[in-house]
Write a structure and sequence with these properties.
Low-confidence stretches: 1-15, 168-186
Bound molecules: zinc ion
CATH topology of the largest domain: Rossmann fold
Helix content: 25-40%
Mean pLDDT: 83
Radius of gyration: 18 Å
Structural class: alpha/beta
Strand content: 5-15%
Length: about 190
């Protein structure tokens, strides 16, 4: 019923308001990160280990397991569908559109991306990319660089298809980026 809203979770002791995705919902973790949500993945099958981690980190567990969700009570979210898109939609309903910040996290390690100036990325991204992109960000953990390339646009369209109108790429436009120069026959 969306009663476990982010604001409710985050009120109080400043603990993490993020999620802990278990292996029954593994593919969802990457998508939550793409949407800008803090989503840790835990491969353990052991319900006790997951419950312990949730307690320690203050994270809300996302699972397909009825047993685990029942055990966790308020600190668990049971995914109603086995289909990824429906799962994404459910999570967007849970957190609310306004909590989304697409493309603000590293897909691989869940870390918040840090914007970098263009002169800082020379030699670290393909020459073609360097030439055609103006905005870059980097993951402080794995060092992966991100930009609004073809993949970005595909993901962006996919997000719109799945969740409808999210505030798109807010973080990019914040810097005054105008990325839609359709040069080179896009
Ligand atoms: Zn990373």
């Amino acid at each position: 019923m969306g009663s476990r809203s982010l604001s409710e979770r985050s009120s109080g002791d400043g603990k993490s308001e993020g999620f802990l995705v278990d292996r029954t919902a593994g593919r969802l973790a990457r998508w939550l990160r793409i949407l800008g949500l803090d989503a840790e993945y835990m491969a353990a099958c052991d319900a006790s280990a997951i419950a312990r981690r949730a307690r320690q980190s203050g994270r809300t567990v996302i699972t397909r397991s009825h047993a685990l969700a029942a055990r966790l009570g308020k600190s668990g979210i049971l995914l109603a569908s086995e289909h990824l898109r429906e799962q994404i939609r459910q999570m967007v309903r849970e957190v609310g559109h306004e909590s989304l910040d697409p493309f603000s996290r590293c897909n691989a390690c869940n870390e918040r991306l840090v914007p970098v100036a263009k002169d800082g990325v020379g030699g670290r991204v393909p020459a073609y990319v360097y030439e055609h992109q103006e905005r870059f960000s980097v993951c402080p953990v794995c060092g992966r660089y991100y930009w609004q390339g073809t993949h970005w646009h595909i993901m962006h369209r996919e997000i719109e298809r799945i969740v409808g109108g999210v505030r798109d790429g807010d973080r990019w436009s914040r810097n005054g980026a105008s990325h839609s120069r359709s040069k080179g026959g896009g």
